[in-house]
Fold:
Amino acid sequence: MPRQFSPGHPAKKIERRMASDYLTKLFGLEGQVAVVVGASGVLGGAIAEGLASAGATVVVSGLNPDRGENRAQLIQEAGGKATFISADTLSRDSLVQLRDQCIEKFGRIDMLVNCAGVNSSVPYEEISDEDWQRVIDTNLTGTHLACQVFAPYFAGREEGGSVLNIGSVTAHLPLSRVFAYSASKAAVLNLTKNLAREYATQGVRFNILCPGFFPAEQNRKILDKERVDNIIGQTPLARFGEPEELVGASILLLSRGAGSFITGATLYVDGGFTAMRF
Ligand SMILES: NC(=O)c1ccc[n+]([C@@H]2O[C@H](COP(=O)([O-])OP(=O)(O)OC[C@H]3O[C@@H](n4cnc5c(N)ncnc54)[C@H](O)[C@@H]3O)[C@@H](O)[C@H]2O)c1
Structure:
């Protein structure tokens, strides 16, 4: 038989929390709409599935309609709410259309995840101007355009909004052969913090999730045996990450409950890779 506490007793507050659905209030996304750009990819797809599992209606977005449609269908078949809307982060018009279509279809957008990205791996002397520009354009300018298109919408609504940009451990650390990629991610980190400052009083939170090493399409070519051995050898957990291992951190940063006082934060999900360095 639980003890009876008077209304003013300190234990009463804890008792009330226990009685209610504590975790749902902290991390639940029921009734909210999440746009995940780059969700046709490996990490974006896992994050989209995770947000849908937490109750969000997910807009799977990206360049590849086949993969995107397929991802949205899988989420629906599993009982989640998802739809595919294509968008190219290199085009402001395309992002405006994405935003407006989402608002028309669902009446709201609560969060944006910028997970589109490309990589290139060559010695510094061999980087072509085209390749440098392609990486900077997609990773940095694409993220900037999406933030610029969605942030004023979030700022204009009472509930505000939340943006999660995807960085990398190389946003802080130099890594061999990925010069344009590292520079783009360092810039995304800086932009994220600056937007967190800029929009804080308008109810829009910006955070950056920095994954360690997760085998995916864009880095498959880069991961030769020497690099794999180096990475695993320098990762305290001594393995690559699984895409699903990004979900909890994403929900924490995006959620209105648990994440309400988190903005401008950098969260590394990297098996301890950066712990060895700073
Ligand atoms: N895989 C890793 O180990 C790792 C580590 C750190 C950071 N990241 C970052 O995570 C994000 C996702 O990477 P991933 O590993 O899932 O790669 P991925 O190649 O599987 O996914 C990237 C997605 O971005 C999409 N995309 C590319 N250009 C686009 C554009 N102009 N408009 C819309 N979509 C576009 C691609 O179609 C693809 O679906 C990237 O930003 C990447 O830099 C990945």
Remarks:
- The longest strand covers residues 204-211.
- The radius of gyration is 20 Å.
